[in-house]
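Thread title: Can someone regenerate the structure for this chain?

I was given the following input by a collaborator and told the matching structure tokens would be attached. They weren't. Posting the sequence so someone can regenerate them.
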Amino acid sequence: MKVGTAINIHKALVTPVVLGLMWFFNNWSTEAFIYLAIHGSYSILWLIKDSLYPDKRFDEKQPLAIAILFVFLPLAGYYVAPYLLISRHLTLPSPLIGLVVVLYIFGIFLHYVSDAQKFYTLQNKKGLIEDGLFKYTRNPNYLGEIMIYAAYATMSMHWLPFVILSAWVFGFFVRNMLSKDKSLSRHAQFAEYKQKSGLLFPKFF
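Best answer:
Regenerated them for you:
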């Protein structure tokens, strides 16, 4: 099974899983629908992105058991946030909902726009991408994804989704970012680009 297939199955299940939780716990609150809207739309956008400008890294094939145990099941940890929100019938303060919406919108922008920029730029010009969303941070896509999942974790009003997000950040994202830096270091101008940009957070000065 392709790694991308396991990821896409997880994304496709988000909306039915959240709707199932809403039905099971009889929770049709505004908070539940907001969660459904933001996590569901993110997952649909992911599937659209995968069909239009896929990430070639996810073409790697793994045995079915490996794909389930080390890709799908870890991703399923992200179902914890909606469970905690919906099962406890949480009512979120309005400022917190505002924070969630801001995190989600900026995260979506950074994640999908930077992936599109990378995909289409590399089709026409190989090498470093030092402009656009990559001007100040070398990984705007990861920054966006972290913001998106931070929004979901915030809605749960619980520490556990933040632990799960941190495990992904330090177990997967950071490793990939450092590996990417190592690969890009073969370019002569990388040292200068590295000085001007942040690994994850934008470096303006």
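The chain has one domain: 3-196.
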